[in-house]
Design a protein that fits this description.
Layout (H helix, E strand, L loop, with lengths): L8 E6 L3 H13 L2 E7 L11 E2 L12 E4 L6 H10 L3 E5 L6 H14 L4 E4 L6 H12 L5 E11 L12 H4 L3 H17 L2 E9 L11 E8 L4 E7 L1 E13 L2 E6 L11 E7 L14 E6 L4 H14 L9 H17 L1 H17 L1
Parallel strand pairs: 1-2, 1-4, 2-3, 4-5, 5-6, 7-10
Antiparallel strand pairs: 7-11, 8-9, 9-10, 11-12, 12-13, 13-14
């Protein structure tokens, strides 16, 4: 539904695949955007928008906004060019292939001064996650002790040939592609994690040069511990986030997604009951809240619009959050000595090829 907005922003979408179209649809629902051009190597004659194949050609349409929905290795160039040309930018995650890519974009962001740069970490604004954050922030459940996260899927058809599994293009495998969302949520709830231990493995797709499983145990400066398992061999697609606090627990099972393969989002909350000695009684009664509509895409676009037009600060998807999570991804890769050696060998071979 169109809203009574006082400014319509002209948009160019660079990368008009699945995510580019999702962003286009969300902007149409918002009503404060006009998508004037899209860029992609494959042209869609049925696309309801002007199409070009050269990313620089989108600037001929005088956009206010660049939406960046390209593979990881292209993100820094697209983002930095847009900022240098005075455009606001909404970019997909991962934010490039490395923390160095993010630092490069931060330099361009600072030089652009009043331009907005937002990265699409939409899991932060899923309804179940937002409700969990409100409960914990209210303080009644006490201090946070530890978190567990599992985010996994089956690799699927064409997995080995997908660009996401070419480290030169993606920067890594299932951890940087999917597990990064769970790591971002960990840092949303508990801040930065510096102490990291990990096991990074290739179990099934042994001929693919990236990991298909990553296990990590991490601790922050306050002693909060988090464990994550990011997997491409989770044959039953799974999202589960558990947060255990002094007075109970909060968990989110399932996450609404474009594929619909992770099921309904279910928020479970339980408060401890104490016996006469003040000790918690096992298996406290829990309450469930189910969510059936994914509003995350619309929430992200609304926040982006308000940041551009109303100059409101970003809460989610800031460049600093992007840098923090990319540094954590790198610490997980590096914490496994064997995987660290494999990455070094791959980098050497890549440099020799150049």
């Amino acid at each position: 539904m169109k809203r009574d907005l006082f400014m319509t922003l002209r948009v160019a979408i660079v990368g008009y695949g699945k995510m580019g179209r999702i962003r286009h649809e969300a902007m149409e629902r918002h009503g404060g955007f006009e998508v004037v051009v899209a860029c992609d190597t494959s042209q869609d004659p049925d696309a309801n928008v002007a199409m070009v194949t050269d990313p620089l050609a989108v600037y001929d349409f005088n956009p206010d906004i660049i939406v960046c929905s390209v593979p990881n290795m292209m993100i820094p160039d697209v983002v930095c060019t847009a900022l240098e040309r005075g455009k606001h930018v909404f970019s997909e995650k991962p934010p490039g292939r490395s923390s160095g890519d993010v630092r490069r974009m931060i330099v361009a962001e600072r030089a652009a001064k009043d331009r907005v740069l937002k990265f699409g970490f939409n899991h932060r604004v899923h309804d179940a996650i937002e409700e969990a954050k409100k409960l914990i922030d209210a303080g009644t459940m006490g201090e946070l002790y530890f978190m567990r996260g599992v985010y996994g899927k089956a690799g699927g058809p064409g997995y080995a040939q997908n660009w996401r599994n070419d480290p030169a293009q993606s920067g890594g495998g299932i951890l940087i592609d999917q597990g990064i969302h769970m790591l971002d949520l960990f840092q949303m709830f508990a801040g930065r994690f510096e102490d990291v231990q990990s096991y990074v493995q290739r179990n099934f797709w042994t001929d693919v040069p990236v990991e298909d499983n990553a296990f990590a145990l991490m601790k922050n400066a306050d002693g909060i511990v988090a464990s994550v398992h990011s997997s491409a061999t989770q044959w039953q697609h799974t999202f589960r986030l558990e947060l255990y606090l002094r007075n109970g627990f909060v968990s989110v099972d399932g996450i609404l997604s474009a594929s619909g393969s992770y099921g309904t989002e279910v928020l479970t909350v339980a408060l401890n009951r104490l016996d006469t000695s003040g000790n918690p009684i096992p298996n406290p009664e829990s309450q469930e809240l189910r969510f059936t509509e994914d509003k995350s895409w619309d929430k992200e676009i609304t926040e982006f619009y308000d940041a551009v037009v109303k100059h409101e600060p970003l809460r989610c998807g800031t460049s600093q959050q992007a840098l923090d999570v990319m540094e954590l991804v790198e610490r997980i890769y590096s914490a496994d000595p064997e995987w660290h050696r494999i990455l070094q060998d791959q980098t050497t071979l890549s440099d020799q090829a150049v």
